[in-house]
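Action item from last week, closing it out:
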Amino acid sequence: IHKNGTWDSLTDGRIWRIELNAEGAISINLIFNDFYLPETSELFLYTPDYKYVIGAYTSENNNYDGVFATAVLPGSRTILEYYEPYNIDSRVNFTINKLIYGYKNIFFPEIKGYGGSGFCNININCPEGQAWQNEKRAVAMIMLKNNSRICTGVLLNNSKQDATPYILTANHCLGGESTWIFMFNYESPDCSNINGPLNYTIQGSKLRATDTPSDFALVEINSKPPQNYNVYYAGWSAINQTYDSCTAIHHPSGDIKKISFDNDAVTSTAWGSGVGNSHWTVSNWEAGTTESGSSGSPLFNKNKKIIGQLHGGSASCNSISDDNYGKFSYSWDTKPIHSQQLKYWLAPDNFGIQELNGFDFNIPLYNRDASFDEVLIPSSGNICKNNFSPAIKFSNKGEDTLKNLLINYSLDGILNYSFIWQGSLPYMSSTSIVFPEINFQNG
């Protein structure tokens, strides 16, 4: 950023701009390395006519590995605009590693994407979807780094209710999940077909657990969705029981968010796996359907808890036939290995729990509520050298913006240290701290 582009001064800060031109491209998106935005700074991308704008990206989009990818913008020219106030306390840094040159048009109905789903699909903001306005906020479209729209996922609550951003999707969607792009709120504002916003995106995830019989995959997004994304963490049930109706929310053919209804009880099957009781089968939909791109999307019971994710089937607007969902109850703890079950990740502090309500983190419980997230350094339990600088990640779960924090920590429960953090951390934001170096003897 300091080698290219131009800076301009403002009354309260300064602004940096650069224009990228990929001659002949139908669309452009970018992949960054060494990506770091200081708190209170903002990064936007937009087309020269200002018709398409994505951002603001903020410090909430910083990833520990420094990799970040943007959503797609149409056309051959993209402008990057970065703003920082004068009183900023750290230095911005990023490198454009790759420019993805789009040669297929994904912005018009004849191409798979917006407007590409079948005629019988129901927009989530139609009257039929009004009872599902919380749950819809948990559902995201999954895209590859080249912005190909591949699957659907859903944000899950966990028993600690700490807003860890776990996404449930399908095992057969996996591949390149470290650079996946998750797009929230991609929906029409009403019942008509209007293209949804493209700027509620988060890049990158880590695979936590997966297994083939129930075709599930659990990934953790690299950063929590910012508060202005207005997401919801969906509830779930690992109880193996049927219900007399169910509902699906999904992105068929990469289209804007849709909803489907089945008014009959699902049946327990071995669909596609050869393993009994690994799937719920929806015999047919009474309203709506699913399509390619709906894979990995959640199936909710009548209590609005997830009971499975879409594996496959032959249902479509032209085929009133079955769809099949890997059972949440099978994925829960059938396999004892942590990397092949949901239980270890979603009930880490309460192994007796089998179902959980959804949670809306946009409603803080307390004014002041700092939450420890994880130890970043050391990444394992042992240090085999004479010095290191510990690092942690923490969040603000309280309504008030955190201005300072006293942190006490120890090494092997013997050496005690204190550190005072100062900054400005809004509600549901997180940040990391690198503590002063610790020196110690061998042993």
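Closing note: The first helix runs from residue 328 to 333.
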